[in-house]
Amino acid sequence: MPGVATCRRHWSERLALALFAGLAFPASAALAQQEDAVLRGLVTNQDGGAPVAGAEVFLDSSTMAVTDASGRFAVSGIRPAEYRLSVRAIGFQPFEVILNLPESMTYEVELPIHPGAMALEALTVEALRLPRNRVGDVVERMAWGAGDFITRSDLDEWHPLETSMALARSTKVKLYFVGMGECLEEVLFGRGSEATSRFTPDAGARNPSSPAGGPCAGVQQRPGMQVLMGRGARRCVPSLFLDGVRYQTIPGILIDDIVHPHDIELIEVYAEFEVPGEFANADVGCGVIAIWTRVG
What we know:
This protein is mainly beta. Helices cover 12% and strands 32% of the residues. A 6-stranded mixed beta sheet has the order 1-2-8-7-4-5, with no helix packed on it. It has a 5-stranded mixed beta sheet with strand order 10-15-16-13-14. The radius of gyration is 33 Å and the shape is elongated.
């Protein structure tokens, strides 16, 4: 027969706590030679003695075992030491006992636990604060797997000072600093580059500040980060949707001037080849950024 350790429980006003575990010696030389201790136990209902299945057994806060249908558990590979053994089971009060396992042998314990309510950890439910008729669409797009999503939780964790700084977390977005009065096309492609003709629908406008009089969609209204998308060397201003409505951006205006991170609930970022149908139109060749502001 294996060695046996029994525990006696003394109840206090707040918690039942067993203070001592008696030891027995191994019945064979093989058990005496094992390097680690083995703990076998039975968890029972104190009211009637019925076995408790599905109870979690912890040693020093680490989950070690779960009782089977007969209320039994076994834990091997335990280093001889003193442990705080605890049991948690739904519908029962928490049980704790100080268990002394000084030798490399097999111990057996019976742990009677008292029925009662157990306080569960607080559950935090998070949901998108979007208009009711839009939540389903957004959740479906998130499950679809295309695009990058920046949630309110992300923004609370990152604390970006500007919306552009939050968008920089997306691999689909590039930021370019442009000084006040500069032409973004010239910053990106140089003066007179044919690439400017596809930069924005208004690329034919002239930039009076350009010495060469080259084409420019508009000059920067203040120094800051321009948010661009596109593949390879082709960079351009993406289409912007604000609360589901296409926002007509003005060349030279920063996205940071349109919406602040504090007011954002969710950002969707789609490259040109993955734009969902809701945002599809003739001008999504540079991709789409859809921003949903906080409501309520």
